[in-house]
Hints:
globular; mainly alpha
Amino acid sequence: MGWTRKVSNRxxxxxxMEGSPYTAGQISHGIEIFLLNLINAxxxxxxAWLLGIFPETLCFxxxxxxxxxxxxxxxxxxxxxxxxxxxxxxxxxxxxVKHVPLLPPAAAYALILxxxxxxxxxxxxxxxxxxxxxxxxxxxxxxxxxxxxxxxxCACFLSLVLVEFSYRLxxxxxxxxxxxxxxxxxxxxxxxxRLEKTFSKGW
Length: 203
C-alpha cells in the first residue's frame, strides 16, 4: 500500500459519519485521486517550466482536463503509472503546440475542421465513456452527451476564430480535443489493456 493510500484511509476514517451514503473506501478513493492529481499538477508545471513549454502545456492540460471531466476516457489501473503516462502526454502536447509550423490560414481552417469532424464522430459513437467516474444512469449520460457536444461545438468555433488572432491557441484547442477523442475510442481501451497485461507478465 502506497503512502497516498495510507493517508487517504486515515483521512477517510475521520470524515466518514454514521448514515453517510458513501463508504470509507469510496471516500478514501476520492481523496487518493485528489492527492495524486495535486502531485501530478505540481510535477507537470515544474517539468513544463524547466523545458520552456510552460504556457503551452498549461493551456493544453486545462483544455484536455475540461473535456475529460465530461466525457471520461481510458485510464491505466495503476494510479502512478497513469499519472506518469498523463505527464508525458501533457508535456508532449505542450511541446507539439510550441513547435507546430505556422500554416497558411486556409490550411489551418481545413486542419481544424477535419480534426473536429473526426472528434465529433468519435464523441457521437463513444462519449461519455462507460469507464468514467460518473453516475451512469441514462438521464445523466444524456446530459453528459449534451454538455460534451456543446463543448465540442464551442471549441471548434473558437479554434476557427482564433486562427487569425492566436494561431497557437487555436492549435492547442484542436490538438487537446482530438487527443481526448482518441482516448475515448475502444481501440485505446484495448491497447491499454494489452499493455497492462504485457507489463504484468513481465518481459
